[in-house]
Structures
1.
Amino acid sequence: NSCCCSFEDYKLTTEWLLNQTSHRPKVAVICGSGLGLLADGAANKQIFRYQDIPNFPVSTVQGHEGCLVFGTIEDTPCVFMQGHFHLYEGYSLCKVTFPVRIFKLMGVETLLVTNASGGICPDFKVGDIMIIKDHINLPGFAGQHPLCGPNDERFGIRFPCMSDAYSKDLRRVALDIGSELGCSDFIREGVYCMVSGPNFETIAEARMLLILGCDSVGMSTVPEVTVAKHCGLRVIGLSLITNKVSLDYSREEKVNHDEVLEIGKMRAEVLQKLVTTLISRCQQQSINTH
Ligand SMILES: O=P(O)(O)O[C@H]1O[C@H](CO)[C@@H](O)[C@H]1O
Ligand code: HPA
C-alpha cells in the first residue's frame, strides 16, 4: 500500500514529455468517464497515447480514450487527460495519481478534475453539474490512501491540510460562469464521495452515504485531488450527475455504465463551454494573484 514510483520515475516521465513537446501547460484537465471531448476545444493539439509514455498506466475502461492531449485554450497552455485511472482497474493509488505529479513537475499550477457520478442528494437531477465543494475519502478511511508510505518532501509535507482542497475562488468563478452561460438551473455545489467500485451502490450503502453528508458518489477523483493538494496545486472539480442513486427499495431503475456515458454526450456542449471559460479565467486569476 505504499508508493511504487520513485522520484526518478516521475522525473524520467516528465523529462521524456518535456523533450517530446514544446507545450508548457499551466492548467491540467482530467476528463472523467465519457468526457474526453472536453479536449476538443483546444488549439495546436499534440496527442500522446498513454501506452507510448514511459511509466504511464493505460486506460482499460470504456469511455476513457487513453490519450494525453497538449494544446491551448485562448492562449492558456493546457494538458488534458482523456481518461483517468481507478482502483477497480487494479491500479495502485500511486499509479492512479502518477500523472498529477508529472503535471506538477512540468509546471502546471491548476488542476481541473471532472467526473461522472451518481446523485445521492434527492434534489439532484440527471444532467446536473455539481461543483465539488468537498469530498469524503471512503477508501482512505480503510487505509487505501495515495499518501501512505514514506513521504517525499520534494512533493509536499507529511500531514497536508485537506480542509480547503477545492479552491474557494475557483468555485466562485465557476458559479459565475454558470450563471453567465444561463446554466444556473442545473449547476449545484456539493460533497463528492469516493467508493472503490466497481459495483454500483446497494440501496443500504446509498442510504448510508446520504446520512454521511454525501451529495454524489463516484469511483475516482479523490486520490488525484489529494495528491494535487499535497503538492500545492490549485484544484477545481466538476461532477456530472449521470444517474440518480436509488435510495428506495420500490424503485425499479437500474444504473449501468452505458447510461453514464450517454449523459456525458448529452451535456457535452455546455460542459465544454464551462471548462474552456473556466480555464481562461483561471489563468487570468492566477496572473492577478501573483
Ligand atoms: O469517475 P469517472 O471515471 O468519471 O466515472 C464514473 O463512472 C464509472 C461508472 O460508470 C466509474 O468509473 C465512475 O467513477
Ligand atoms: O451511481 C454511481 N455510483 C458510483 N459511481 C458512479 N459513477 C457514475 N454513477 C455512479
2.
Amino acid sequence: MKKIVFTGGGTAGHVTPNLAIMAKLRSQGWEMEYIGSKDGIEKEIIDHEGIPFHHISSGKLRRYFDLKNFKDPFKVLQGVVDAYRLLGTIKPHIVFSKGGFVAVPVILASKLRGIPVISHESDLTPGLANKISMPFVSKICVTFPETLKLVHSPKAECTGLPIREQITQGKRSRGLQLCDFHSQKPVLFIMGGSLGAQRINAAIRQSLDALLQRFQLIHICGKGHVDPSLTSVRGYQQFEYVKDELADLLACSDVVVSRAGSTSIFEFLALRKPMLLIPLSRQASRGDQILNAESFERMGYAKVLYEEDLTPDTLLKQLSELQDSVSAVQERMAMNPFGNGTDTIVSLIEKHRRTGI
Ligand SMILES: CC(=O)N[C@H]1[C@@H](OP(=O)(O)OP(=O)(O)OC[C@H]2O[C@@H](n3ccc(=O)[nH]c3=O)[C@H](O)[C@@H]2O)O[C@H](CO)[C@@H](O)[C@@H]1O
C-alpha cells in the first residue's frame, strides 16, 4: 500500500488545498496521515475528513523582534524530534507540504529520514516557512507563473492550486434556502479569509443599509465575530466559519468581497465569481495578499481596494463598478489559463515517491 503524510497549517489556506489532493489519492488507494500543530485550524479540518492526525511541537518563525523569538527555535527543534519519531512509525513513501510554520520541522525530519518531500506555495511571493524549506525538498510547486521568477530553482514548477472538487458542486437553490433568501436580488458573498477580517466586518456593517438595497448578503465573519444585534436583519446572513455548506453558499452568490488569500481567490476564480479584493496591508503582513490581488486585477478578474482607502463610500462605489462589469469579468474568467493543480501534483507525487520500502 502506498502511503503519504500531509503537513501544513496555521490557517485554513494552508490546509484546504491538501483536501483536493487527498480525495484524488484516496480514490487511487493511497493511505494517508496528517502531521500538524496542536492549536492550528488543521486539526479540526482533518478530523472532519476522518484522517489520522498527529500533532507536533511548532514555533512561529518571525521576521520581526518578539521575546518569543528566543523560545520558538527550541519548539521547532522539539518539532523536528516529534516529526522524526512519527515518520519512523508511519514510514510514508512521500511527504506533501502545504506550508505554514508547522511544515518546517516535518520537512527537516523527512530530510533526515531520506523521505522525499513535495512542497506547494499558494501565494505569489513564497512564505518564510517555504523559503526555509526549499533546500530540503525534491520539488516546489507554485500557483502563480510570476513566482517562478522569484524562486529561481530548477525544482520549481507552476502547477496551479489544487482546488477541492466539492466546492464546485454547490447548488444555488440550496444556498438560497440555507440563508432564507429569494432569487429576485443578487447575493453578495463577503469573506475575510479563514479567520475573518475585522476591518472588512466593520466596513460592511457601517454600509449595511445601503448594501441591503442592492444585495442580499452572506457574511463569513470569523470565529467570535458574528454581531448578535444583527442576526434578525432580513437579507443579512452571518456565519463564523463554514465547512460543507460553503459550496452551496458560493453557488448562490453573484459577487464576492474578500481578503486576497491565494487559496480563496483561486476558488472564486474557478467558480467565476467577480471579486472586490481588500488585501491584508503591509503593516500586518509581508504584503503577499497585495501582490496576489494586483495580479488578479491585471488579469481582469478582480478590482482591488486597498485597506487604507477602505470607507463605506469607496466600498459602495467599487462594488457598483464591479457589478456593472460582471459579464465581462466572467468572460475573462472563463478563459483563465490556471487549471486545477490537483492532477499535475498527483502525477508529481507518483513520480517522486520512494519505491521499495
Ligand atoms: C492572515 C493570513 O495569514 N493569511 C494568509 C492565509 O490566509 P487564509 O488561511 O485566510 O487563506 P485563504 O483565504 O487563502 O484560504 C482560506 C481557505 O479556507 C476556506 N474557508 C474559509 C472560510 C470558511 O468559512 N470556510 C472555508 O472553508 C476557503 O474556502 C479557503 O479554502 O493563507 C493564505 C494562503 O497561503 C495567504 O494568502 C494569506 O495571506
